[in-house]
Amino acid sequence: MSFTFFNEFKVARFYAMYSVGEEGLYLPAYKGSTFRGVFGMALKEVACNCPKGSGHEPYCIYAYLFETALSNTEANHLPRPFILEPPNNEEEYYPPGERIWLGFTLLGGAIQYLPIIIYTLKLLGEKGFGKGKHSAKLVQVFSLNLSGSMESIYKIDSPTICNHFSIYTGSEIIEHFLNKNHKINQCTLHFVTPTRLKYNGQYTDYPEFHIVLRSIVRRITSLYYVHHNGEKQSENWALLFETAENIKLIKSAVRWYDWERYSNRQHQRMKMGGIVGQATYVGDLQLFIPWLILGEYVNLGKNATFGLGKIKIILKH
Ligand SMILES: [Zn+2]
């Protein structure tokens, strides 16, 4: 099965490498919320020059990237066109000189703003982050190609940002990872970072296949609609989801994992739990594999923008 919009869906992946400054860095176990906060603040400084007190102008790049909205009412439901991928470990202290790797993915309309993102990441390091707001230097930025090899596109000792980096379409990603000659009837899905799947309004710790698929399809189609000037997909998803209910979850080795974060807006600690671990599915998976493969690139569930919901799939022929 192929949808034309897979051809138009665009992804670019990067790694930013920081060197920790002289004071060391103190970060919480869940680093997504730290980066969410400082990235948003730095981006606002870099990319918003709207007049104060009247909301954002239509041309505001900060608003497009960070407060994505088509109209005020939809604001909370629209996906942002980027994903930050902080180090996935619980290390809370980084000594001076240590490297910190921050992965980031740009999607569709955000890709053109790479220079602004790099400038924001540089500023973010200078302003400092974590407890005490200690600084870290943005040393180098790499572009990642489909095979996973990295190419340098920015270095601290040169002002140049290389504009020749890998951008791949959804179709290219799927073709790269899918061997069409083999029928796939088993796959294991690894939930690498806490994945917050909602079904019927509730978070679930039992990742039935159709729930995972619903989440991926919803995310990819709305990223396409909002960030690729795409059309709302009129496909009959109900039929796809119904078929997905035939796929059996034969082994679920997931556990609920609670991150805590402090919300400055709500002045309280918030739980950001999700499932981690792995789940194995059997059935005729052919129809769904393209979605799963692309799911690895866009994360799924709530708070995907800040690194939650990262998945890895292992296919069995
Ligand atoms: Zn603005």
Automatic annotation (TrEMBL):
Pfam families, A to Z: CRISPR_Cas6 (PF10040)
InterPro entries: CRISPR-assoc_Cas6_C
Domain (CRISPR-associated protein Cas6 C-terminal): residue spans on this chain: 189-311
Gene3D superfamilies in UniProt: 3.30.70.1900
Domain of life according to the entry: Bacteria
Protein name in UniProt: CRISPR-associated protein Cas6 C-terminal domain-containing protein
